[in-house]
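tool_call: predict_structure(chain=1)
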Amino acid sequence: MYSVFLVEDEIVIRDGLKVSFPWEEYGFAYVGDAADGEVALPLIRQTKPDVLITDIRMPFMDGISLSKMIKKELPNTRIIIISGFDDFSYAQEAISIGVDNYLLKPITKDKLKDVMSEAKNKLDKETERDNYLEQFKAESQEYEQFARVRFFNKLVSKTMSVPEIYEKSEELGLSFDSTHYNLVLLDFTPMTEGTAAPVYSKHMARLSDQIMQYLKCCLEYHVFHSTMDTYAIIVKGDENTIQSHTKNLIENIERRCLFYDDDIHWYLAESGAITRLSEFASAYQKASKRLSMRFINPKGHIFSDEDLEALQRSKDDSNVIVDQHLVMLFLENAEASEIDSFLDNLINSQGKDAIKSNLFCRYFAMTMYMCVCDYLKKLDLNPDSVLNSNIRTLLDNATGDTVAALVGSMFQVAIEKRKQEVGNQSKSQLSEAMRYVDEHYSDSSLCLNEVAKAVDISPSYLSAMFSRDTQTTFVEYMTAKRMEQAKALLKNTKEKTQQIAERVGYKDPHYFSYIFKKTYGISPKEYRNEGTKQ
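tool_result:
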């Protein structure tokens, strides 16, 4: 239902229109009135009506002056001018500022009915257009998201030349015209003690939306979804601004994250400023190593090299004890790509000279072996059948040169087994998500967040599963389902295109026709005609 506000200095007319006209019957809620423009303006700013009906001649502020201000502040508000003066100059001025209608007093019920019906029709079309644009924007953003992920992965793996970086970034609408850059990694690893896909969290969904909205408003940042739990943010600037831009980013993220500190684990690390696009690979490695400190200190939030140095100093004069709980958290939550950084940080955290001791190396190797065995048992696996048969002998003879590689190989096996276990669960959840889409595709408001909530899994994880296991995006799967049903309805029923569009989840028949032609190369009408010829 739309809203309407009335401004009329004659109380008899104002009260008469308010009471006698059946506003709700014509799709409007009467949200207020005033005797002149001066009193009306703050009320209109507050109520933001869809339609404003105002007299043209009033004391203090007339209808033309009020309409000019409303058109400037609320350009989507429809304005209807009423007047007792059949003066063409008034009509001309009203039309020039974008007033929708100009009516002469006395205003009969039939006249007002026609005008309000026309206003409602215009508002309906605008709403349909806005819904179409929002839907198109949402679908385009998901397609763009995967293209950006691929671009970022190539950027930090150094598989693109500098000219290719400029070419691909231009295709994605990304600007890389700065002299200095910084790479900030923002991670939301759940740090759970269990092997399962991350569950849906309304707090996480809300926080992600808030951070994304902030980043999209700032031209100095480019954001990418690096992994399921990690965002990568490229900060742009020059020699004088790169530090302040980075500081502002971190402070804004920290302020938003701290609001949810009791419910969400969050971690952040930056690479430091670089001046070449070819340096992003090394910048990513540096930021990733700092970020892996979250498994050494899961209660921390923002990590730098100073954190590791401080930890080293605290261990130099103390007994060497590895916290096995932190190792288990790593095995349960980390990516295989983080193994080297984690082990490097974990070994260095024991003191700068620890790795020089063969006794420490053997102790460390056997401790890691026990952690891996315990973790494999949690997965209902037999460590002896999973790990290298001579791993114990190799670990007993570990040295500073071999210990990291030996432990890393065990970690690799454990994480791969976890991935397989989670993958099996994910297939079940993905099947459930696909069934949900199959059953609710006709709902025009169906979206990734709704499906993720229904199957109790995080939206980012569900989106990644669709891409990995079906080689398509969530939107592409939902669209394919809708198009499949649309073809059947076009072929087997005589329903109009608009009816079919609504039955398969599209409020706007024009958008439905656009998607159908984009999918099959012909319009719904052409498809139906081809079917009748056979």
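agent: The beta strands are 2-7, 28-34, 51-55, 78-83, 101-104, 180-187, 221-225, 230-237, 267-270, 302-303. Proceeding to next step.
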